[in-house]
Amino acid sequence: MDNINFINRIKNMVGEKGINIKELNDKTINILFKNGLLNNAYDIFLLKKEELYKIDGLTKEYVDELIKSINKTKNCSFEKFIYACSIPKVTEKEAIVIAHTFLNFTDLVIDINNNDCDRLKRIDGMSEEIVESIKRNKVLLVNLFMYVNPISIDEKNANIKRYKFCITGVLNKDTSYYEEMIKEANCIVVDNVTKDVDYLVFGDLANAIKMMDAKKYNTRLISERQLVDILKEIKENNKMKN
């Protein structure tokens, strides 16, 4: 991996969708890399205050906050841990689906160690290309696990139905706005319509292929307004189950 790709992987790993080390900004990542302190993704968790104090451009106050922030992120959610590994082809959406399929790191590694990766392959929409990418990055997953303790998903919450939504077309608000709403309701956003997608939210200029797939799989078509009402109902039902 070249230097630019490595640095981008680190930025992705510590970003908001990953383990979210807020104090570790782009400038600091570049400084640490140039000083030989970042050679592997997990080197972040080996940083020592005494080493960082000696580096020009890093104040004592900043270093103290940085180390504190790093230590806080060692207990992150399982899905954030998967995304933080920056495995090629594994987006935030795949990370969420994988996490809620396996519930914990051990079961994921057991499946990866099985050459057939049966459970991974059974996940709807999980292509052979993605599975192979995960297998190739098994060492990275295991090494990072030595320093990060991803929180296993509670089986009680895992049994709550997590509806899958796909969005297409031009909506009144930005797509990211509705994606956040869907995630807040403990549901999943996917890029394509497959047999296990529950709802297709559509607006103007909706993608024709997605609309045809929705018809093929009997996926329910809903508007923005219907989406808001459905998510409200889902959140209320989940509260009752808890």
Automatic annotation (TrEMBL):
BRCT domain span: 158-234
One family name in Pfam for this protein: BRCT
InterPro entries the UniProt entry points to: BRCT_dom, BRCT_dom_sf, RuvA_2-like
SUPFAM superfamilies in the record: BRCT domain, RuvA domain 2-like
Protein name: BRCT domain-containing protein
